[in-house]
Amino acid sequence: MIHIITTGGTIEGLDYETEENQTEGNKISIEDFFRSANVSFSYSLENVLDKDSRFITDEDRKLLVDKIKATSAEKIVLTHGTFTMEDTAKYIGKLSLKKTIVLVGAFVLGTSNETDAPFNLGYALCSVQFLKPDVYVAMNGTIFHWKNVTKNLVTNKFEQR
Fold first, then answer.
1. What is the C-alpha to C-alpha distance for residues 100 and 47, in angstroms, rounded to an integer?
2. 79 is catalytic
3. End-to-end CA distance of the chain
4. Looking at the predicted structure, is the pLDDT value of residue 5 above 70?
5. Residue 10 predicted with pLDDT over 90
6. What's the CA gap between 64 and 91, in Å, rounded?
7. What are φ and ψ of residue 130, in 5° steps?
């Protein structure tokens, strides 16, 4: 079974317009993506946060770690906004939790016709099934280890550090 933990962000179609973390637009659930893809794998879904990742704190990251530790699942996909995805990956990676954890997000709103969300989510779900226990970022068809990932703000892509 794959345990999916959601934290909000662009992948769910949330457009964060203000510094107070208020959202604009329609939200799409991860289950909406699964329904349209007619998935047949076993999964559980847990919404832990509903935040713009710019406002995710170390206290939030500790909560995510507590949720990861609490689940019996060994394979976890964590949806996360791209602004601080690498920070969360490093925070979790340093803990050596002995589970396979893949962080994934989207650069284009999940509710947009041009979104990269379904591709990235599908790629992360496939990857988590074959990777060895550790922490990874799966974005735009590439897997990055938590120790070797950075977001390039010029190209708006993740790349190796």
1. 19
2. no
3. 31
4. yes
5. no
6. 10
7. -120, -15
User: Tokens 């179609």, residue?
Assistant: 13
* Active-site hit among 7, 10, 82, 84: 10
Greatest extent of the chain over all pairs of C-alpha atoms, in Å: 39
CA distance linking residue 108 with residue 93, whole number of Å: 26
**pLDDT, position 12:** 85
Give the 3-state DSSP-derived string for the chain, with helices as H, strands as E and coil as C.
CEEEEECCCHHHCCEECCCCCCEECCCCCHHHHHHHHCCCCCEEEEECCCCCHHHCCHHHHHHHHHHHHHCCCCEEEEECCCCCHHHHHHHHHCCCCCCEEEEECCCCCCCCCCCCHHHHHHHHHHHHCCCCCEEEEEECCEEEEHHHCEEECCCCEEECC
Query: In this structure, how many other beta carbons lie within 10 angstroms of the beta carbon of residue 17?
Result: 12
Instruction: Please tell me whether the overall predicted TM-score, pTM, comes out greater than 0.85 for this model.
Output: yes
Q: Which two tokens stand for residue 79?
A: 């949806």
